[in-house]
Design goal:
Structural class: mainly beta
Number of strands: 12
Distance between the termini: 37 Å
Order of helices and strands: EEEEEEEHEEEHEE
Strand content: 35-45%
Mean pLDDT: 93
Length: 193
């Protein structure tokens, strides 16, 4: 991600921001006398299980239109993380779950696209879902029937495989993932029920 070059308030060219003799990773607007940050965007998602199957949505919007993904999207202002995940789940797959019923499942950073993500998990007792305006289709897929050849973001397939592994074992942990241009790591943070 390239850093901000111009002030988002006045359009003035930003200069390096030096704090305590150290140049920081954000700019400073001399006209506004304020630092300007290019904050990461926050993506919220929800792994929803029905028996040994996970919910997938076929994307209607770009990027990756026509490919399959776990339901999710950008957190909106004023939402809690779980509220955002519940909203995205309803918008994309027609499943209405209270935010309080979602359990924290994975957190991570994707440094090269300046994103943080927080994933929740939930279990439903029916496989009813209905594609919303952002989805072409949706459905629950077992690991064997998953549309692996048309996954929108194969970079995060390790997380999806982990979710299927957890479904198979019935043991869920909270996971932390870090993805940089050079490496991908996924490790348990703490054990949960």
């Amino acid at each position: 991600m390239s850093p901000l070059r111009y002030c988002t308030e006045c359009g003035h060219l930003l200069q390096p921001h030096v704090v305590g003799g150290e140049t920081r990773g954000h700019g400073f607007c001399a006209r506004c006398a304020e630092p300007r940050y290019a904050h990461p965007t926050v993506v919220v998602t929800c792994f929803v299980a029905s028996e040994n199957r996970l919910l997938w949505v076929q994307r209607e919007l770009q990027p990756k239109r026509g490919l399959w993904a776990i339901p999710g999207g950008f957190l909106e202002s004023g939402e809690t993380l779980a509220e955002g995940a519940a909203r995205e789940l309803h918008e994309e797959a027609g499943i209405l779950l209270p935010a309080g019923s979602l359990q924290l499942y994975m957190t991570g950073a994707i440094t090269f696209i300046n994103q943080l993500y927080v994933a929740f998990r939930a279990t439903v007792d029916t496989d009813f879902c209905l594609a919303g305006p952002e989805s072409r289709d949706c459905g629950f897929f077992s690991r064997e029937n998953c549309p692996w050849d048309s996954v929108a973001y194969p970079e995060v397939n390790d997380c999806i495989v982990q979710a299927y592994d957890d479904l198979d074992s019935g043991r869920f942990e909270v996971w932390q993932a870090e993805m940089t241009p050079d490496r991908y790591e996924l490790w348990p943070v703490r054990q949960s029920a």
